Amino acid sequence: MLLFIFLAFIVFPFYWMVSSSFKTRAEIGGREPVYIPSSLNLDAYRELFDPAHPEYQNFGRAILNSLIIAIPTSLITVAFSALGAYAIARLHFWGKNGMLNGILLIYLFPGALIIIPLFAMLARLSTMLGFNVQDNLGVLTFTYLAQTLPVGLYMLTNYFRTIPDEIEQAGLIDGCSRFGVIWRITLPLAMPALISVGIYTFMIAWNEFLYAFVFLN
Questions:
Q1: Given a cut of 80, is residue 111 above it in pLDDT?
Q2: Is the pTM of this model over 0.90?
Q3: Using CA atoms, how far apart are residues 207 and 150, in angstroms rounded to an integer?
Q4: How many angstroms separate the CA atoms of 12 and 18, rounded?
Q5: 106 with 21, same domain?
Q6: Are residues 137 and 162 in the same domain?
Q7: Per-residue pLDDT at 67
Q8: Does residue 146 share a domain with residue 103?
Q9: What is the pLDDT of residue 206?
Q10: How many domains does the chain have?
Q11: Looking at per-residue confidence, does 74 or 158 come out higher?
Q12: Is residue 54 part of a domain?
């Protein structure tokens, strides 16, 4: 019984979202809730995807732009944060703990706090290097990397520390290079964390609105 109630709380919002997409405006805005649409009304989907519709929203292009931004953001974050996290977790150098704490401190700042100085910095660079800040998907991807790299680095550093160092030492004794140990031993063992970071950063880039609103017209 408890499981049924739990599933109802999860499934019902999804059902309401899908069923509402087939309702008329009167059914959506009425006082009485309409649980089952009176007919299969596709006007909402035509408004999003049909260029012939008078209120066409070009939603397909918006989805494509989101994918163009979110996929590179996720892949670049995983690649660079994995290398940086491994260096912090395994190598011994002065100031690495302070570096990790500084990275965490950067992540604690809300994105709205840094958007103005970040925009000003990119605008100044654009005049020097000759590129447009606004309506530039590459620039928007760069701004997302400034937000996703710290969290990816912090998450992977903690995960790499859970992998026993003796496994890597055994690989080095058997003749593997440091890069070979990372590629053949450490990264396969860290695959769950890499996938988690990739999905998490993809969701950050996919759901983000403020930076997209400022940098895209």
A1: no
A2: no
A3: 18
A4: 10
A5: no
A6: yes
A7: 94
A8: yes
A9: 93
A10: 2
A11: 74
A12: no
Inside any domain, residue 173: yes
Q: Write out the DSSP string of the chain.
A: -HHHHHHHHHHHHHHHHHHHTTS-HHHHHSSS--SS-SS---HHHHHHH-TTSTT---HHHHHHHHHHHHHHHHHHHHHHHHHHHHHHHH---TTHHHHHHHHHHHHHS-HHHHHHHHHHHHHHHHHHHT--STT-HHHHHHHHHHHHHHHHHHHHHHHHHHS-HHHHHHHHHTT--HHHHIIIIIHHHTHHHHHHHHHHHHHHHHH--HHHHHH--
Counting other chains too, the contacts that 126-134 makes at CB distance below 8 Å and 24 or more residues apart are 133/215, 134/215, 134/216, 134/217
Residue with tokens 């999860």: 10
Are the C-beta atoms of residues 100 and 171 closer than 8 Å to each other?
A: no
The answer to whether the beta carbons of residues 137 and 65 sit under 8 Å apart is yes
Same-domain pairing of 70 and 158: yes
